[in-house]
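re: the backbone from monday

yeah here it is again, tokenized this time
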């Protein structure tokens, strides 16, 4: 399978964000990753999931949501990782970039959010209902999307570790507020970062199947 890979700087909401873009031949759709809790496009967990999506003929965009200077500030204060308004505005801009980019224009778009990045993905789903076709959250905080949850009508999969008790409850509460097709998948024995043997593989397979099903369905709609 031929694959186009490139590293780019994307102008998003007034800043330049570094991103790694992979587009397989005859891609079924494109998935944009929203990192959270001090993470970046170099997150080994998200890069593993991205690799599984690419093997299923899904293009991926892993972008930093903070600049290098902002990342340094966040490492010291932990403040920006919870600024959902800032992160969501940048994911919206990245989503618009994906739709305008020649290699991905016309492809249905999925959003994959991890930790606080889940909220940063759900806000754009509410704000871009004609662009975003599906959402997956890994160990996420969808509750931080607040009132936007009621406006999310895209198919949304919430994946949580079975030993992540507080986050399970927060996801159950968010599940009741989401307006579209939803599912909560609890990975038995997994903690918040899914570091246990086989846990991340389950996350990747759940995400892959969800995106393939729903992005393919969107692409086939007249």
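seq for it, each position gets an aa:
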């Amino acid at each position: 399978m031929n694959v186009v890979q490139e590293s780019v700087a994307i102008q998003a909401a007034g800043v330049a964000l570094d991103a790694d873009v992979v587009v397989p031949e005859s891609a079924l759709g494109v998935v944009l990753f929203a990192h959270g809790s001090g993470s970046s496009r170099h997150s080994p967990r998200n890069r593993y999931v991205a690799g599984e999506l690419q093997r299923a003929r899904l293009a991926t965009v892993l972008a930093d949501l903070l600049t290098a200077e902002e990342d340094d500030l966040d490492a010291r204060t932990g403040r920006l990782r919870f600024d959902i308004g800032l992160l969501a505005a940048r994911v919206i801009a990245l989503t618009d970039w994906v739709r305008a980019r020649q290699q991905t224009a016309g492809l249905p778009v999925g959003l994959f959010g991890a930790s606080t990045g889940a909220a940063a993905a759900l806000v754009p789903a509410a704000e871009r209902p004609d662009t975003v076709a599906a959402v997956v959250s890994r160990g996420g905080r969808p509750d931080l999307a607040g009132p936007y949850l009621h406006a999310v009508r895209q198919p949304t999969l919430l994946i949580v570790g079975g030993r992540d008790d507080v986050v399970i409850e927060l996801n159950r509460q968010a599940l009741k507020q989401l307006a579209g097709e939803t599912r909560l998948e609890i990975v038995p024995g997994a903690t918040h970062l899914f570091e246990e043997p086989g846990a991340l593989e389950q996350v990747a397979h759940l995400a892959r199947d969800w995106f393939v099903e729903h992005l393919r369905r969107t692409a086939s709609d007249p």
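The longest strand covers residues 3-12. Residues 199-220 form the longest helix (22 residues).
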